[in-house]
Amino acid sequence: MLVREILKRGAGNNLQDPSKDSVTTWECFLCFRRRIEPWEFEVFFDPRQLRKEACLLYEIQWGTSRKIWRNSGKNTANHVEINFIEKFTLERQYCPSIPCSVTWFLSWSPCWECSKAIRAFLSQHPSVTLVIYVARLFWHMGPQNRQGLRDLINSGVTIQIMSVPEYDHCWRNFVNYPPGKEDHWPGYPVLWMKLYALELHCIILSLPPCLKISRRSQNQLTLFRLTLQNRHYQTIPPHVLLATGLIQLPVTWR
Q1: How confident is the model at residue 219 (pLDDT cuts 50, 70, 90)?
Q2: Are residues 2 and 10 in contact, defined by beta-carbon separation less than 8 angstroms?
Q3: Fewer CB within 10 Å, N- or C-terminus of the chain?
Q4: Residues 221/215, Cβ–Cβ less than 8 Å
Q5: pLDDT per residue over 110-133, tens digit each?
């Protein structure tokens, strides 16, 4: 009840300048956000798990304000990216003169349809910049999904695979971790992060997929297989290939 009353009071405040310190509906909502539970973070963002549902953790910063608004979302009838766009559009009076920086931490990368919706949203909100960190690549073998990610990057969106610093940041800022456990987020294998980073390079460079992922249902193991062609070796930066620890570059003898 208290949250509802504050939201009602905030709704009457000036929404023209989101960078001001005045209390707004959006700010009140985020101040009273519910952090996700540790088990939710673990099942949604473990790169080895192929969970169907998606989770979004996001940060919004307006203008020169040092305040960062944080919240989370999950799939409903719509994908979580569409939910964010609708929420942003409905609950915030957009002011084109004020820059807005948005950072997403997604358990799955956007599908091609969401990529298209994101580009449309950004074209209608040119002062919004978007950075996306993803834990896994969604159906990355599909040509439409690969093209959708390339189109996002070509439109100015930054897309990266979540690494240890991003996982640590999310644990500290979005998770209702137990007292004294701020440094003890679930340690996921770094290898999976590097494998997805390798595949993202393939997508960006318009190369064929090199990472194949499958699930052995009997013991719930997630398996991967790397298949590299000559053009992968010729195009992908050597440090990205070597970072997996699974690849040896061909040696040319003189």
Answers
A1: low
A2: no
A3: C
A4: yes
A5: 999 999 999 999 999 999 999 999
Question: Among candidates 46, 7, 39, which has minimal Cα distance to 25?
Answer: 7
Annotate 216-244 with b (16+ C-beta within 10 A) or e (fewer).
eeeeeeeeeeeebeeebeeebeeeebebb
The upper half-sphere exposure of residue 115, i.e. CA atoms within 13 Å in the direction of its Cβ, equals: 23
166 classed as catalytic: no
CATH topology of domain 38-189: Cytidine Deaminase; domain 2 (3.40.140)
pTM of the model: 0.83
Cα 148 from Cα 139, distance rounded (Å): 12
Q: In what order do the strands lie in the sheet with 69-74?
A: 69-74, 55-62, 100-106, 128-134, 158-161
Strands 128-134 and 100-106 turn out to be: parallel
CA 44 to chain centre: 12
Contact at 8 Å (CB) between 33 and 71?
yes
> Which sequence spans correspond to the domains of the chain?
38-189
